[in-house]
Amino acid sequence: MGRMGRRARPVLASLGPVALDRAGPEPLHRQLYRALRQAVVDGRLRPGERLPPSRALAAEWGLSRNTVVTAYDTLLAEGYVTGRVGAGTFVATALPDVPPEGAPRRFDTRRGVGLSRRGAALAEAPSVARDPLDRPFSLGTPDLNAFPFALWGQLLGRSWRVGGRGLAADPDPLGHPPLREAIAGYLRAVRAVRCDAEQVVIVSGAQQGLALVAQLLLDPGDAAWVENPGWPGNRAALLGAGARLVPVPVDAEGIDVAEGVRRGDGARLALVTPSHQFPLGVTMSLGRRLQLLDWAAARDAWIVEDDYDSEFRYAGPPLAALQGLDGAGRVVYVGSFSKVMFPALRLGYVVVPPDLVESVRAARRHFDGGTSVVPQAALHRFVAEGHLASHLRAMRALYAGKRAALLDALGREFAGFGKAEAGEAGMHVLLRLPDGCSDRALAERAARVGLTAPPLSGYGVDGAGGNGLVLGFAAHGVEALERAVRELAGVAGGRPDPIRGPAPSPSRPSPRRPPARPVGAG
After folding, report:
1. Do 240 and 358 have their domain in common?
2. Residues 509 and 360 in one domain
3. Do residue 232 and residue 309 come from a single domain?
4. How many Å from the N-terminal Cα to the C-terminal Cα in the chain?
5. What is d(CA 304, CA 283) in angstroms, rounded to the nearest whole number?
6. In a designed cystine with 509, which of 172, 256, 419, 513 is the match (CB 3.0 to 4.6 A)?
7. In sequence order, what DSSP letters do the residues of 32-84 get, joined into one string?
8. Cα separation of 476 and 482, whole Å?
9. Helix or strand (DSSP H, E) at 259
């Protein structure tokens, strides 16, 4: 019989050490039975695993074979194992309903016992799970079909062959020097960031970079401005450092600095997304940028600039980073390759003022010692050989077409009902909803038909940000996006109020369907 036709061999269970009291009053076969039974109940012996043959187990533990056979027979009679002639003894796939007498209770891990105040705040902070790639409108996920994975594999192999033992040594806590040099050159040319390689710190994704910066710059109880609405991960990074969050509203010009001063003038730090605010998509005006920089310089405060997806800009000239305007050394710049390449890469960077470099180096030694060098070496080649610039040009053109198609489809299907908005950059658009429609209710209905459409109100504190849906477009093709918009419109139009009962399964609307009515409207 060919290799594909052979039946897979069952996994042989590993029992590990078992304590048997050979001088005690209890027979050895009962001790062995109880030990095996507890291993099954605890999950150390898993359903379907084959127990060692009785002769082998007896020889390994210095027992008579009859002792092992008696223990196996008792387990078999109680339903913890099954036996097949000629095949062996296996852990049962369906265990008895009644736990054995004396079995320990499982711990309830939901209580959060022992957490610090910071830990409890971090555990309770809202989070956004990574959306499944097969769900339309998933956020923050690039088009993985368009990434040159074959080239990436070649670069990984070449980096390892050339770097060899050098890549296996302890890494520089700040990152692979050639990659830091390449990133510094890229940022100077493309984002007008003022830096040299020594200021660039390689981290395991932007989220780690934000957490590192927060730990270094904030004491527990320090006030920190956060955009409202804003990305939950940014708030979580500050909460992890024990910060007291000060939500500051965002308008068409970006974060409202004057309102921030009114709410928390003594704040130690402001975390902002000036190039493409999430989720509203606005770009911070020059006036607001200068106002924010003046505030930080006057108060000896810090600004953390999260530049998460500014590479994908579709209108107007490229924008300079806020950091490039900073003359007082108060801006820390954070970027990532997760959206421009692929999420699992888990590589990002932080550009710190020169005075912070040695403090960051020491902190990295204490925290994790640095980021794996092997992917850094390949990324250095990807940047230095021009592959990143080429990839970004191709992705900007691809995403611009998807963005336009999504806006057109939303305009058709939601005419007279909602309003589609898109910033000049990024990988998502907004669908503003009328007051009579609950964005949370519509998001729940969309989820039932396989659509990811987070409610805009879910990104704000106290409902700030408005009423709408946040729709990503990068990960899906034009036809899939257009079909998803039709499905979303079908869910939104002519359904009963979700409070009064579940919506029926939506059918594809006809081209002549009237405009959608608000969810919850009469």
Report:
1. yes
2. no
3. yes
4. 67
5. 16
6. 513
7. HHHHHHHHHHHTSS-TTPBPPPHHHHHHHHT--HHHHHHHHHHHHHHTSEEEE
8. 10
9. helix 257-264
Q: What is the 3-state secondary structure (H, E, C) of 347-412?
A: CEEEECCHHHHHHHHHHHHHHCCCCCHHHHHHHHHHHHCCHHHHHHHHHHHHHHHHHHHHHHHHHH
* 3-class secondary structure, 344: helix
Q: What are the tens digits of pLDDT across the range 460-503?
A: 987 777 899 999 999 999 999 999 999 999 999 743 333 223 33
Distance CA 353, CA 323 (A): 10
Q: Amino acid letter at 82?
A: T
Q: Which of 413, 203, 400, 196 has the alpha carbon at shortest distance from 313?
A: 400
Number of H helices, E strands in the chain: 16, 13
Q: Is 116 exposed, middle or buried (0-12, 13-18, 19+ CB in 10 A)?
A: exposed
Q: Is 455 helix (H, G, I), strand (E, B) or coil?
A: strand
For residues 417 and 434, the answer to whether their CB atoms sit within 8 Å is yes
Domain stops at, among 385, 404, 420 = 385
Domain hosting residue 76, numbered range: 9-91
pLDDT per residue as tens digits for the range 262-319: 999 999 999 999 999 999 999 999 999 999 999 999 999 999 999 988 889 988 766 8
Residues 349 and 422 placed together within one structural domain of the fold: no
CATH number at residue 441: 3.90.1150.10
Distance CA 182, CA 346 (A): 18
